[in-house]
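Late entry, evening session. Most of the bench is empty. Finally got around to the prediction I had been postponing all week. Sequence below, unchanged from the version circulated by S.P.
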Amino acid sequence: MHQILAAVSMTIFPCLCTALGAGAVFLARPVPGGGAGQGLAGGVMLAACVFNLLLPAAESGWLAPAAGLVAGAALLLLAERLAGALENGCEKKGRGWSAALAIGLHNLPQGMVVGLAAGSTGPTGAAAAGALALSVGIGLQNLPEGAAVSLPIWRAGGGRWRAFGAGVASGLVEPFGAALAAVLAGGMLAGLMPWLLALAAGVMLAAAMQEPLAAAVQQGAPGVLAVAVGFGLLMALNLALG
């Protein structure tokens, strides 16, 4: 129980950062088409897919990132089909929610990584400091990711509070992942982590291509430039904190 509580406590800061990022929806002003906001969200999602998911998964070899990426994209498409998001003529209402699902799934393995680090350390020492630094680093990365959830949902007509709630909910997956990692800590979980990371990457890539990236491309040069800005922002955070 102590390990579970320690693991969950390490995710409090990342969750708060996600909520803070999602709060950007209360500062945003309506923009026709929302291409810049969608582009920023798409760029952040692409960078998270590469730097936070695929590259760590590739450390175990090529099979997990390659197969998991395709499986994750197929998983999102199947989930959308089962939910009727593509068949029931509610495309506008559904826009943005795939991004929330993708970033939520991306946060699950991140929470598991924090949980593994926290659960395997004592209350003091360099190992505990490393786990805390990991928590802070993931939290800073979650700032733009919270906005990447809330802004597209709001621009699609979801309402500010509803969009904010979706952004907060996407971060609440991390404590669950941390607790799960603390319970299942060991060789089995370590072997599954590359696959979980790659599956989350596939979901995120498919969601980014369907919604924010497609909307950004339709806006022309401003939208494409916004994608580059979003990608560069999260890339810089990853490299600075790495």
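Two things to note before I forget:
Residues 126-155 form the longest helix (30 residues).
Residues 89-93 have pLDDT under 50 and may be disordered.
Will write this up properly tomorrow.
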